[in-house]
Amino acid sequence: MLLEAIYHRNKQIWAYAYDGQTIHLRLRAKKGDLTKVEAMVGDKYAWDKTMELIPMTVFASDELFDYWECEVKPPFRRLRYGFVLQDGKEKIWMTESDFMKEPPANPDRLFDFPFINPVDVFKTPAWVKDAIFYQIFPERFANGDKSNDPKGVEPWGGKPRPDNFFGGDLQGVIDHLDHLTTLGVNAIYFTPIFKATTNHKYDTEDYMQVDPHFGDVETLKKLVKLAHDRGIRIVLDAVFNHSGRTFAPFVDVLKNGEKSKYKDWFHVRKFPLEVIDGIPTYDTFAFEPMMPKLNTEHPEVKAYLLKVAEFWIKEVGIDGWRLDVANEVDHEFWREFRRVVKNANPDAYILGEIWHESSAWLQGDQFDAVMNYPFTNAVLDFFIEQKIDAESFSNYIGKQLGRYPRQANEVAFNLLDSHDTARLLTLAKGNKDKMKLAALFQFTFTGTPCIYYGDEVGLDGGPDPDCRKCMEWDPKKQDLGLFSFYQQLISLRKNHSAMRGGTITFLDAKANSTKLAYVREDENEKLVIFANNDSKAQTIDVKVAEKTLQNIVTGETVQTQNGRLKVQLPAYGYALFKAMK
């Protein structure tokens, strides 16, 4: 046993309350090193009467480690615990302070989970587990009201540039809600809609006003109500890391300098405010002078932004916030933000834009989820770029699952492209079969999938600004076959709970292989999913306990032979089976 690789600590992702009655325990060990792990658990005040051994299972693996997990429901909401580790005949007992070759004489030096206090339980909105998001960049989705078009608006469908406008607005979204309903999505994430000077609106001028080019608050209320009537939730983008150059307090600082009453609303290093050799004398988003960074520790700034966060939930009834550049804002602000938002709507979804490992924000006191770019990178590397093999892909996925508590993984925002990246079809170099395989994994994985507007009809585009093309509304120019594929994926996800939650186990994910087979299983059903990420036909042969399985796409029933299921797949083919009881 390589004891140096074995790791557990109390709280965080290693011992946490999943709900008001359940504790999840996790332990890390060298990959393949342990043959059996049990959690030794009991009540600290009645150890002799309550002690029991709970089997642990490997819920995720990466290239170095196995991550073991079990679920415990302590009768009195508190837990004293340790671990029994086995490698063949060798057995070690792990306490809070030591590894022992004999069972501990008493539980005093075991790990302690003091009490499941309800206020400390990390609660995420249940509806997100069943959500299929659709991201809309409002300026490019549809022009429904030409009377509010910006000056110099260009004909719909022209080449996107950083500084041009095509007249997309909220009325355009209202006019095309049937498209979203037919597709099957039940949640929309909008990039910013508040008053700003740019087409992307990430340079907010007025946080309390809908951009006049998009409509007004009444248009937004109408959109939210019509969407809610169709069962579609609405999440807006909040840009609280920085404002725009035309934000009134910043204009005042530009004008009055050190005499401005708003000078402490921003991080000014030196007056006057100017740009020297490309670097502003004040903190900004990146080095963009038109996006000055807000001082979210300042009481007045904090009060203003928290009022904004509450207003749009209470006044308009939005269902959550996506938080731009979330990792550059102080943690204390987000803690207060969560309290304000959850008080206004306990079911609101709080989604942070963080592109890297994000456990510091996913402890239950700040965000519900983050935009899952590590997932994005893994899927693109395997299915699209084919830079890694099946084994490396499974390791990436296992590592990501092991980073966060289960409730955070269940509502992770799983995207494959966005307004900040090249489009999926372009990344796939026009290969729609590759694109479909990537989307298949996205829709059969834990967390909520998001479709970037237009992907479903074959919209392409390189990096920003090309990824922000106008939506294609001419049916003759839409890929209706691709649209049908996404419809089918969405329908399957809605109809099969195991595609949305439960566990994932890789059955075939070998080194130097382009074949993938994995199980998605919850308390209701078990699905076995196959994918051939290769330009040649391949056969995948895996061990399956059940004798009969049904293809959930074709309805065909198949029998296993000698406990194995053999599936022949065409180039870039896939198959989804449900185990029959």
Descriptive terms for the model:
581 residues, alpha+beta, Immunoglobulin-like, 6-stranded antiparallel sheet, 30 strands, 23% helix, GH13_cat_dom, hydrolase activity, acting on glycosyl bonds, hydrolase
| Portion in helices | 10-25%
Q: Mean pLDDT, rounded to whole units?
A: 97
* Major beta sheet summary: 8 strands, parallel
> Helix segment count?
14
In oligomeric terms, what are we looking at? single chain
Number of strands: 30
Residue fraction in strands: 15-25%
CATH superfamily of the largest domain: Glycosidases
Overall form:
globular
- For the largest beta sheet, what order do the strands appear in spatially? 20-19-18-15-12-11-22-21
GO molecular function: hydrolase activity, acting on glycosyl bonds
Family: Belongs to the glycosyl hydrolase 13 family.
Protein name: Glycosidase
Organism: Paenibacillus sediminis
What does it look like?
- With 581 residues, the protein is of the alpha+beta class.
- The chain has three domains: 3-119, Immunoglobulin-like (Sandwich), CATH 2.60.40; 131-239 and 318-497, TIM Barrel (Alpha-Beta Barrel), CATH 3.20.20; 498-579, Sandwich (Immunoglobulin-like).
- Keywords: Glycosidase, Hydrolase.
Which helices and strands occur, and which strands form pairs?
Layout: E1 15-17, E2 23-30, E3 36-42, H1 47-50, E4 52-55, E5 57-61, E6 65-72, E7 79-87, E8 90-94, E9 99-100, E10 111-113, H2 126-129, E11 133-136, H3 170-175, H4 177-183, E12 187-190, E13 194-196, E14 204-210, H5 217-229, E15 233-238, H6 248-256, E16 275-276, E17 279-280, H7 299-316, E18 320-323, H8 331-344, E19 349-352, E20 369-370, H9 373-384, H10 390-401, H11 406-410, E21 413-415, H12 424-427, H13 432-443, E22 448-452, H14 480-495, E23 503-508, E24 515-521, E25 526-532, E26 538-543, E27 548-551, E28 557-559, E29 564-569, E30 574-579
Parallel strand pairs: 11-12, 11-22, 12-15, 15-18, 18-19, 19-20, 21-22
Antiparallel strand pairs: 1-2, 2-6, 3-4, 3-7, 5-6, 7-8, 7-10, 8-9, 13-14, 16-17, 23-24, 24-25, 25-30, 26-29, 27-28, 27-30
